[in-house]
Amino acid sequence: MRRPFFVCSSINMPSLPRFTQAHCELTRQIEVVDEQGVRSSVTIPAERALTLYVDKREIVTLMTLGANPELLALGYLRNQRLVADVREVESITVDWEAGDAGAGVAAVRTCAGIADLQARTETRIITTGCGQGSLFGHWMDDVDAVRLPNASITQARLHDLLNTVRQHDTVYKSAGTVHGCALFTGNTMRIYVEDVGRHNAIDVIAGWMWMNDIHIGADAVFYTTGRLTSEMVLKAAQMGIGIVVSRNGITQMGYDLAQRLGLCAIGRAKNKHYLVYTAHDRVLSVAPAEQQG
Cβ distance 17 to 110 under 8 Å? Predict the structure, then answer.
């Protein structure tokens, strides 16, 4: 295996962390036999273990597709609120062959360490996330300090968003069994990420936003193919997103948290069908300018 080399996401921001580019295959072909005994080849998504170390301390092992491991590590630290600013991270080195039993390793080196890292990571909560997500015991601390924009979305824009996702070329279309997440601003899909767990995909988006200095406003919408659990709602809110859309449904804790945060949660969204779970008045039949006219 070649030694990793470092690249910087933006030449205009030299203080950003240095990344390796640890690419790997996202799918593989296997032979299957159907109910009539006919053999054929199908495509399945990859699944890899990636153990995250921060300043040589083991934090967590994530099960991932492996498409964006450096952004996944960065976004995980951001959404766990272990790192407050991207410039606190000096580098992220990923090696897919460095761990035990073939597991990959993501080694994060911070500039000045993380205060109370051991105490902040002692209590771990196993979530409902596919690929077994995890949160640390402080995950609901300061939730009431989250401030979201007074965001709204028209039915027409929501339909366009869903159509854009439907037409997007994805691993899911060829291999299935993965989740996708996307960030929209205005009518533009800024990024689409797939992983074996939806929590991984949103962490990648969080890392991408940091590395590219993306500041979003009231026109931002987060989309996921997975269900809206409390974990997904909180992560979207922490990223400053006031509207979340899911092809799936919402859990009770996800609903209660969205209500508490004033976040507009939309589920069962496919084609022109959807259910608005919270902040019902944020989904408009026509644009505000048309209402005035």
Answer: no
Q: What pLDDT, on a 0 to 100 scale, did the predictor assign at position 269?
A: 97
C-alpha torsion 141→145→148→149, nearest 10: -170
DSSP SS3 for 286: coil
| Cβ density class 244-261: b for 16+ within 10 Å, e for less | bbbbbebbeebbebbeeb
Supply angle C-alpha 213, 263, 231, rounded to 5: 75
C-alpha to C-alpha distance for 243 and 278, rounded to whole angstroms: 10
Whole-angstrom distance, CA of residue 132 vs CA of residue 136: 13
| Residue 209: its H or E element | helix 198-211
- Number of Cβ within a 10 Å radius of residue 36: 5
Q: What is the pLDDT of residues 175-211, one digit of tens each?
A: 878 899 999 999 999 999 999 989 999 999 999 999 9
8 Å CB contact between 131 and 63: yes
End-to-end alpha carbon distance in the chain: 64
Element (H, E) at 15: none
pLDDT at 4: 39
**Does the pLDDT of residue 156 top 90, yes or no?**
yes
Stretch 132-143: mean pLDDT, rounded?
58
CA distance 131 to 125: 14
Q: Is 25 exposed, middle or buried (0-12, 13-18, 19+ CB in 10 A)?
A: exposed
